[in-house]
Automatic annotation (TrEMBL):
<comment type="similarity">
    <text>Belongs to the peptidase M16 family.</text>
</comment>
<dbReference type="InterPro" id="IPR007863">
    <property type="entry name" value="Peptidase_M16_C"/>
</dbReference>
<dbReference type="InterPro" id="IPR050361">
    <property type="entry name" value="MPP/UQCRC_Complex"/>
</dbReference>
<feature type="domain" description="Peptidase M16 C-terminal">
    <location>
        <begin position="166"/>
        <end position="330"/>
    </location>
</feature>
<feature type="domain" description="Peptidase M16 N-terminal">
    <location>
        <begin position="18"/>
        <end position="160"/>
    </location>
</feature>
<dbReference type="Pfam" id="PF00675">
    <property type="entry name" value="Peptidase_M16"/>
</dbReference>
<dbReference type="InterPro" id="IPR011765">
    <property type="entry name" value="Pept_M16_N"/>
</dbReference>
<dbReference type="InterPro" id="IPR011249">
    <property type="entry name" value="Metalloenz_LuxS/M16"/>
</dbReference>
<protein>
    <submittedName>
        <fullName>Insulinase family protein</fullName>
    </submittedName>
</protein>
<dbReference type="Pfam" id="PF05193">
    <property type="entry name" value="Peptidase_M16_C"/>
</dbReference>
Length: 409
């Protein structure tokens, strides 16, 4: 995985990988600012900013922003996570310059027009209502609140009706001014374009952005207490979440936990949870185990929906599979197959160049480098059955798990 890297005098870094066999270029700004960087009164502001970036800049109105790339067959998008906000685009290689200029404009020159704030406020309130009406989404948000209670990591990225209802134009300017740090911004490019051409086309835009430093420091998370909660809702199916904090992005065990989690409840049909809950017992349509890393902690969560009269049985099956991984060492062939499966999935993910572009930016912000796939594969191949047993006992200990269950009213 060969990539090029340049840091500009203002601190913004450009990372690039050339892919000659495609017609497209994927590019975007990844900023090390996320929902965990909001105060309680600012909850939902970064996500609102993400929306407002498309609603007007110093030289463009909303229509011109939306139409700029769409009329060329390209795509312009953005997303917000707990630790990042990203503005990105995909375009034919001959139009890369237009995409880069537009991304600079919406990232650094948004004006947050008051009339557009009022319109978008309603759009976001509708988005919140949509998520509340979907128990599969709602339980994940509420489980974050349960696991990370009292910390910004537990707050909903969308915010609350109260906070979203109060944001003004000045709130956006003040927040961005206090959090923006050009040393924590990466412009990432993956596609059919040389690094020389990227620099020729974007260096002028990016170098003109004034250097900015922020004194803000994230509050770290270190206060987990296991909890259990049952909520009655107007739903037809029961939903369950089981999990706890896990290893951070800097932890040497993170790739081994990725492997272990993949065995337990990864995306493949042969995961242990899918084989037990769906294939053997028919209790669920889908069950997933997700492992997410943050800069100072991580999160492992298992989610499934089932009938009310089978929720306890399904829960026991999940705990049974976790207990097996804590007490029964994988055999040589089981371990080999699990490694090959995880490596294959990662290699397949590298073929998604838009996602790879975002991974490059995120990794550079978090670790100052991009882990090569070969080094990750080496870590997975070196993992022993004893390693997985040790990690399972650290992460799957029953007395450290939290539970959230939605039951039909």
């Amino acid at each position: 995985m060969q990539y090029n890297l340049k840091e500009l005098p203002n601190g913004i870094r450009i990372i690039h990988m050339e892919v000659p066999h495609t017609r497209m270029v994927h590019s975007g700004f990844i900023l090390n600012i996320g929902s965990r960087d909001e105060s309680k009164e600012q909850e939902g502001l970064v996500h609102f900013w993400e929306h407002m970036a498309f609603k007007g800049t110093k030289k463009r109105k909303a229509f011109h922003i939306i139409n700029r790339l769409e009329s060329l067959g390209g795509e312009l998008n953005a997303y917000t996570t707990k630790e990042k906000v990203c503005f990105y685009a995909t375009i034919l290689k001959e139009h890369f310059n237009k995409a880069a200029e537009l991304l600079c404009d919406i990232t650094f020159n948004s004006t947050f027009p008051e009339k557009q704030i009022e319109k978008e406020r309603q759009v976001i309130l509708e988005e919140m209502a949509m998520y509340r009406d979907s128990p599969e989404d709602a339980i994940q948000d509420e489980f974050d609140e349960l696991v990370f209670e009292g910390h910004a990591l537990g707050r909903n990225i969308l915010g609350t009706e109260e906070t979203v209802g109060k944001f003004s134009q000045q709130d956006f300017f003040d927040f961005i001014s206090s959090r923006m740090d050009t040393t924590n911004i990466v412009f990432s490019v993956v596609g059919n374009i040389t690094f020389k051409k990227v620099l020729n086309q974007v260096e002028g835009y990016l170098s003109s952005i004034p250097a900015k430093r922020s004194l803000y420091i994230r509050s770290s998370y270190n206060q987990y207490i296991p909890k259990s909660k049952v909520v009655e809702k107007d739903i037809t199916q029961a939903h369950c979440a089981i999990g706890k904090p896990a290893y951070s992005i800097y932890d040497q065990k993170r790739f081994k936990l990725y492997l272990l989690n993949n065995i337990l409840g990864g995306p493949s049909m042969n995961s242990r949870l899918n084989l037990s809950l769906r294939e053997k017992h028919g209790y669920v349509y889908a069950v997933e185990s997700a492992y997410q890393t943050y800069s100072d902690t991580g999160f492992l969560g298992i989610f499934f929906g089932t009938e009310e009269n089978t929720v306890n049985r399904a829960k026991k099956l999940v705990l049974k599979e976790m207990e097996k991984l804590r007490t029964q060492k994988l055999g040589i062939m089981q371990l080999h197959m699990a490694k090959e499966q995880a490596i294959g999935q990662m290699a397949m993910a590298e073929e998604n160049y838009a996602a790879l572009m975002l991974v490059f930016g995120k990794n550079l912000l978090d670790k100052g480098k991009v882990d090569s796939l070969d080094s990750i594969f080496d870590t997975i191949r070196e993992t022993t059955a004893e390693d997985l047993l040790e990690i399972a006992n650290e992460v799957f200990a029953l007395d450290q798990l939290s539970f959230l269950t939605y039951l039909p009213r």
